[in-house]
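Please, structure for the following, as tokens.
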Amino acid sequence: MKKKLTIDEQIEDLKKKGVTFEIMSEEEAKKFLRYNNYYFKLKSYAKNYPINPKNGKYVNLEFAYLVELSKLDMYLRKIILGMCLDVEHILKTRMLYDLSRNEKEDGYNIVKKYFWAYPNTKIEILQKADSYNFTSDLAEKHSLDEEYSVWNLVELLSFGKFVELYTLYYQEYNLSNYSDYLQSIKFLRNAAAHSNCLMSSIMKPKGEKKFRKTIKLTNALSKAQKEISLHARSKYMSYPAFHDFVALLFVYNDLLKEAANRSMRDKTMDELYHFFCEKGGRVLKCKEYFEKNQVIAEAYRFISGVIQYIKGQNSNPKHKWYLKI
């Protein structure tokens, strides 16, 4: 078992591992660990730095670098979560619209098939009726119904459960859809909502052994030849977080392409472009912190290249879709 450390001991532990305090003093670091972020989470960003095998210490790692990475991660999670919520809303709207025009579907039949395929979901909905949450009233209202309608059901399902329903519906009627990419968006949505560190494992990607990249997504990104090298595309599309972020970007920009949603899409992409690509943006604010770290610098160039590609395509009147569905 690892020993519990006070904040003073945490600072000493970092110093023993080679972390320096020239930009932020030790006293400033203590305040940050006391009021802004906790040791275990902040230290996770050190995984992006090499360790000298001779002395076991990090190479060129300042405490301020960890702080900056944690801040960038926080800002990015907020943007990602907003995008995921937009995607969820548009997918529900699109599915219910498609269902309303489907003469073979009455809105109850698909729910029967869904509960047959996922029987535990109905139990979970009944449990919601007895618990304190924002959907408990709706769950209680329909808890005695023998049949659920799909327009009520979508309000009671988590995003993961909705993905199951969405996939089932579009497979049932053999309609084009985004099912191939929704697990990626679900992964990012959950990570952002639970404040997981997205930038803590650029060097050693989390979940890499269990991850399978989407070939169609990789092929779609191959069109960005001017912005991203073949080597970078091959490398980072094998990393779960980068692959899933590209999936979110492409699905988001396809779903919000219609005139009714285009202003929201453009606002988000402007925010991302400013955040990553512009000199006054948050990422480049302290770029000198990371210029010597090849791992972070290369990852940054990949993501900024993707965003520049999307920004350019959105301005191209001949451009149609990022993903073929």
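The chain has a mean pLDDT of 91. The radius of gyration is 23 Å.
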